[in-house]
Amino acid sequence: MNYAATLAVLMLLAFFFPLLVRLSTTYGVERSTTITTTLVLASFWFAVWGIRARVATHRTQLELLATARAQIESEPNNPRAFFADGEHVGLLLLRLGRRREASEMIDRYALLGGARESEIVALRQALARAERRRRRNA
């Protein structure tokens, strides 16, 4: 979920608060204010928790990408330098939505002598799937 979608969720939660209050008064629920307030606070807590989890995941992915790039810069001819925490830098870039950079990294990895053909094929298939998703969503 990107930040625009996160803001949309918060806007929906802010929109439903007055509706919940009106609905509870319409049905004559006596503890409507308490119930509605509790539900809204729980909804906002859940939204904040989701946003923080997404931001933490994104930050972790960026740190992993920085580690992989540092490895590649220090050992550009070592195929194992293209992996950080067991994951190829091309897949990390695809997950972050950076298809052009991922394509460049996959091509650089394919040019190395020690790169396995099965890994190269799997990376190119992941890149092709990302391209198809982009075209389908455009």
* Radius of gyration, taken over Cα atoms and rounded to an integer in Å: 23 Å
Estimated helix fraction? over 70%
Strand tally is: 2
How much beta, percentage-wise? under 5%
Shape by Cα distribution = elongated
Order of helices and strands: HHEEHHH
Summing up helix and strand content along with how strands pair, one would put the structural category as mainly alpha
Number of domains: 2
Q: Total helix count?
A: 5
What distance separates the N and C termini? 17 Å
Unreliably modeled segments: none
Q: Indicate the mean pLDDT.
A: 83
Oligomer classification: single chain
Largest sheet, in brief, is: 2 strands, antiparallel
If strands are numbered along the chain, what order do they take across the biggest sheet?
1-2
Summarize the structure in words:
With 138 residues, this protein is an all-alpha fold. The chain has 2 domains: 1-74; 76-138, no CATH class. Helices cover 78% and strands 3% of the residues. It has helices at residues 3-26, 32-74, 89-95, 99-111, 117-137, and strands at 83-84, 87-88. The protein has a two-stranded antiparallel ribbon. A hairpin with a 2-residue loop joins strand 1 and strand 2 (87-88). The longest helix has 43 residues, at 32-74. It is elongated. The two termini are 17 Å apart. The model has no long low-confidence stretch (mean pLDDT 83).
Structural features:
138 residues; mainly alpha; 2 domains; two-stranded antiparallel sheet; 5 helices; 78% helix
Write the layout of secondary structure elements.
Blueprint: H1 3-26, H2 32-74, E1 83-84, E2 87-88, H3 89-95, H4 99-111, H5 117-137
Antiparallel strand pairs: 1-2
